[in-house]
Amino acid sequence: MDKKMTPLSKLFLLVIFFILYAPIFFLVIFSFNSGETMYDFKGFSLEWYRELFQDTRLLIIVLNTVVVALLSALISTIIGVLGALAIHQAKKRQTKNTLLSLNNILIVSPDVIIGASFLILFTMAGIKLGFYSVLLSHIAFSIPIVVLMVLPKLMEMSPTLIDAARDLGASRWNVLTKVIIPFIIPGIFAGFFMALTYSFDDFAVTFFVTGNGFSTLSVEIYSLARRGISLNINALSALLFLFTMLLVVIYYFITQRNKVNGMGVRKH
Amino acid sequence: MNKLVRFFLIIALASAVLLFTISSLNTSQGYSGGNTLTIYNWGDYIDEDLIKQFEKETGIKVIYETFDSNEAMLTKIQQGGTTYDIAVPSEYMIDKMRHENLLLPLDQTKLPNLKYIDKRFMDLSFDPGNKYSIPYFWGTVGIVYNKKMLNGKNLTSWNDLWDPELQNEILLLDGAREVMGMGLNSLGYSLNDTKQAHLIAAKEKLDTLTPNVKAIVGDEIKMLLANEEASVGLVWSGDASEIMSENEDLDYVVPKEGSNLWFDNMVIPKTAKHIEAAHKFINFMLDPKVAAQNTEYVGYSTPNKQALKYMPKEIVNDERFYPSPALTKKLEVYDNLGKKNLAYYNELFLQFKMHTK
Amino acid sequence: MWIQMENKLTKNLYLFPYLLWIALFVIAPILLVLYYSFFDIEGNLSLINYQKFFTPVYLKMTFSSFWYAFLITAISLLIAYPTAYLLTKTKHKQLWLLLIIVPSWINLLLKAYAFIGIFGTYGAANSFLNLMGIGSQQILFTDFSFIFVSVYIFIPFMILPIFNSLNELNPTLLDAANDLGASKWTTFRRVIFPLTIDGVKSGCQVVFIPALSLFMLTRLIAGNRVITLGTSIEQHFLVTQDWGMGSTIAVFLIIIMVVIMVVTNTRKRGV
């Protein structure tokens, strides 16, 4: 950490990180429990991990979850950026507000309603429940958060910048790719990661729109909860957590070494 | 910009690789062939070894999906878009689905093992003649209590819960019929009572229970009771037997005023694609040895008379889970009260929950 | 602006995916919800649901949802702002930011179960209290645990937009303020905060509005001692199957949301 920080600040951050990770460490610790519950720790064992590796069904579910998250984040980021541009360009304040309100409705709607109405929608459209219905729903509820992440960046961009580019004869495509996008990249990445987060987190919507044997981790966990969560789910979370951490750190340091500005931060 | 495009390409590529892996895994596991059977059941409500055994005996690949409430299951089946071959709803839901034409009639000639089912559990009001449904498990609603935490006190009736000594000690299930039923039973009314005055009286009686109620929870209730987070809980019998095996201080009682008797039955929804295989599976589950093994795993009570012979004596003779005929007489099956009455139950239950604060 | 000069067709093509999304996944569901709200439980056209909403039960519920959502947002903001601020000061700030988000990728239900374990009578939190000599407290199923866990869930969503706007702050502005002799507090109040108000606003929006309709945690962590509009909607859709009443509550939630958006967006920044 930076030397400019006071010990108090460091302590504050330390406490925040501790709290954020406490439940996760709790889950990880109990994945090594030789007992059956998340209450008392009977002794160390790798039994749950062994069980986990023999479960192909669970592996398929994990892969399903990851694919849905990656694809939905990718597609919703693209559509969301276009949407943010659309809202930004609206000239009338009223159009802007209307678009923005429409955009935010899915963020505020309770998952149950989103799930139920999507279910009706898919039924009317004749879409079979399964991978595609889940993917479509995840894209749909991730778009508004991408817009919300990108829009403030667009607002910060001064119009003169674009005008200048236009005056210099840049085509519209060039303005978009050379001026606007580089400026809003941090927002785009934030949007992508938020979309990823929404997709991993979602349970209620998926629960409604899945079917025909397609399942994601959160739905699976929810149905397991009926008997109390089995600790192989803890083991699974521990592995996923470790894997994500590794990815995050590796990704970060690769981008650092390549001397591209990290996660696309603009340096002033 | 280039960086962004590269990043997106990497994500797309990773997704493609994952999709390929999934589809090859699915094929290798036999999930994507035509010879499958999709079962829609409650979470963890079957011994998975039995599924493997069935797959081995018949060569049919089973896809097992779960739901957490009758209503969630109904919604999925109502909306189409799914192809469940077997579902396991509770009795009032079977009545409802039957009336909404969501079930296929069963071909009993393909179910020779049906003869093992206890006659007491056949031909009940929710499905006369078992045209559409075959009993899977049954059970009661009652009280689990921790003898150690209550210093040896025994609970025997619903009214015992109102004891001021139980302050902040009771966990309730988050179910309108169950909790309202407790109020109704404690006043001597029927569980299927629809008289407004009776229901309001029950709700008011429940309101006086609030100082004793610690929380109203879902399936976590088992974990909470087993770990002595509270000493008394309103639970289903199967849950009770399960947590009693985890914590020896727990005991289960069906209150003497009477309680609920419920059934979960196997049905074939209208959207089924593999009707032949579905019959095979139902018949397989009716096999006494299979039923006995399943019962020992799940912990609820089996309607299979022959299966009882293959089970340990102490389970079969346990009156808490296989109640005596005298007590059984006091138990009531939930009727399908219709949407309007059910909504009223829920409205009152909601008011009770808001009162808990 | 630059778009004006382009012809209409390309412009429309460009907006097509987003507008299609709005039509299919926003407007269509709203219309559905609105449509259902006019039907009573037996499927007859009626306004009874709207009448019911204005009975004490639902008004009280609305009020308490607002209260909890307000508390959750306020506390999230109080914690998120300094966190985001300090994060921008760290060396590998993007890495630390990612590490803030990572916990939210672990399944919510699992974390809720972990919290049940931590906050339980024999859990880690109580062991700690015992060690401190305070003695065992009931933590689970209280307002405290509910708000704590909700803030825990929402905080990354608050930190991210604030971090982004803080990160964009021009350091020369701060130097200028410093040179002009502004105290740290004044700099914060007059320079930093106003310039990051957009981030704060979007953070508050993405926390407050979903907090109004929380449902799973009300049961798992608060033991149904907190009943929000979300809980009630869930019950109406999944248990009672009274889609009309559930939709009516949803209609009110949507109206509330629109009002909040309009109010927070009209006070435009004066920079």
Your description of this structure?
The complex is a heterotrimer of chains A (268), B (357) and C (271). Chain A has 11 helices and no strands. Helix content of chain A is 76%, strand content 0%. By secondary structure, chain A is an all-alpha fold. With 357 residues, chain B is of the alpha/beta class. Chain B folds into 2 domains: 190 residues, Periplasmic binding protein-like II (D-Maltodextrin-Binding Protein, domain 2); 156 residues, Periplasmic binding protein-like II (D-Maltodextrin-Binding Protein, domain 2, 3-Layer(aba) Sandwich), CATH 3.40.190.10. Chain B contains 13 helices and 9 strands. Chain C has 271 residues and is mostly helical. Chain C has a domain of 179 residues: MetI-like fold (Orthogonal Bundle). Chain C contains 13 helices and no strands. The longest helix of chain C is centred in the N-terminal third of the chain and has 34 residues. Chain C is globular, with a radius of gyration of 23 Å. The relative contact order of chain C is 0.13. Chains A and B meet through helix 3, helix 5, helix 8 and helix 10 of A and helix 1, strand 2, helix 3 and helix 7 of B.
Strand content of chain C: under 5%
Q: Provide the helix percentage of chain C.
A: over 70%
> What's the architecture of one domain in chain C, going by CATH?
Orthogonal Bundle
Structural class of chain C: mainly alpha
Shape of chain C: globular
SSE string of chain C, helix = H, strand = E?
A: HHHHHHHHHHHHH
Mean pLDDT of chain B: 90
Q: Share of helix among residues of chain B?
A: 40-55%
